[in-house]
Design brief:
Shape: elongated
Strand order of the largest sheet: 1-3-2-4-6-5
Radius of gyration: 33 Å
Helix content: 40-55%
Oligomer: single chain
Structural class: alpha/beta
Number of strands: 6
Number of helices: 11
Largest sheet: 6 strands, mixed
């Protein structure tokens, strides 16, 4: 119910404001300036949103569509008829996001082109990125000593699941490995090894499409099958040499793996 308007009270109030110098209204409705001020104070007390920090290579390293990148890699890899052309195709390939994240160059392989054994690691590190070959740092030197002791020197071809150094030597992602996988498969087809040695958990998981940890898979034989199922090879996961440098007590297990592999490599007709 509306209250009656006291005409004389209204006139008295208007006269008061006129005497105070108020001659016009700026809005038809009243504004609660106290509430407005309180809201402004609350807004100032909230921390400002973080400002995005530009990082070198961020724009060029945005991940492309993985399916498109894999398709492009398949076309490029299939056109290669030898390892030299495959190395050139890898260097020219722009589909792997790692290429734009600070890597100096593509790191493809080292070893003999008709090796009986192909060793596939995870990805290049700082030494590999600088020299352009896989397994040339401290872990690579340990691997070479182990191969020599097992009688495998000069009988191996060495590569990785990705060909560019991941930032900070982190583990390559499944997407990064997927974009490089067609080149790895083409390398296997060109070298024609008798078996694969998968060094490290990231390599074993990617090549064998399994989720088990490396300590569970190492020392066990698996069958690697190419995507089109035209190639099938025995594959043995083992501990990565970098892991052995951090945990020397595990070297015995890796040595057992190498002995198992060497025995089968030299006498493939024996049952396993």
């Amino acid at each position: 119910m509306s209250l009656p308007v006291d005409q004389r009270a209204v006139e008295s109030l208007l006269a008061f404001w006129a005497d105070a110098g108020v001659e016009a209204l700026y809005a038809d409705a009243p504004i609660d300036r106290l509430a407005e001020g309180a809201a402004m104070l609350r807004a100032k007390s909230q921390p400002p949103p973080p400002t995005p920090v530009a990082r070198p290579g961020l724009v060029s390293a945005r991940s492309p569509d993985v399916a498109s990148a894999v398709a492009a890699a398949k076309v490029a890899a299939a056109a290669c008829q030898d390892l030299d052309s495959l190395a050139a195709a890898i260097a020219a390939f722009d589909g792997c996001p790692l290429k734009g994240q600070g890597a100096k160059q593509a790191v493809f392989s080292r070893g003999v082109s008709d090796a009986a054994l192909m060793i596939i690691g995870e990805g290049p590190g700082a030494d590999e990125d600088a020299q352009g070959q896989p397994f040339v740092g401290r872990a690579g030197k340990l691997l070479d000593r182990m191969l020599q002791a097992a009688g495998l020197e000069g009988r191996v071809f060495i590569t990785n699941t990705v060909f560019w150094r991941p930032p900070g030597n982190r583990t390559p992602t499944p997407q990064e490995q997927a974009t490089c996988a067609p080149f790895v498969e083409r390398a296997i087809a060109l070298v024609k090894p008798k078996m694969l040695l998968l060094a490290g958990g990231a390599s074993a998981k990617a090549m064998l499409k399994r989720d088990e940890g490396i300590l569970s898979m190492r020392g066990r034989w698996f069958e690697w099958v190419s995507e089109d199922q035209s190639l099938e090879l025995p594959a043995l996961p083992t501990l990565h040499p970098a892991f052995l440098l951090r945990t020397p007590a595990q070297k015995k297990k890796a040595w057992q793996d190498l002995l198992t592999l060497t025995e089968r490599l030299d006498r493939p007709e024996r049952p396993h």
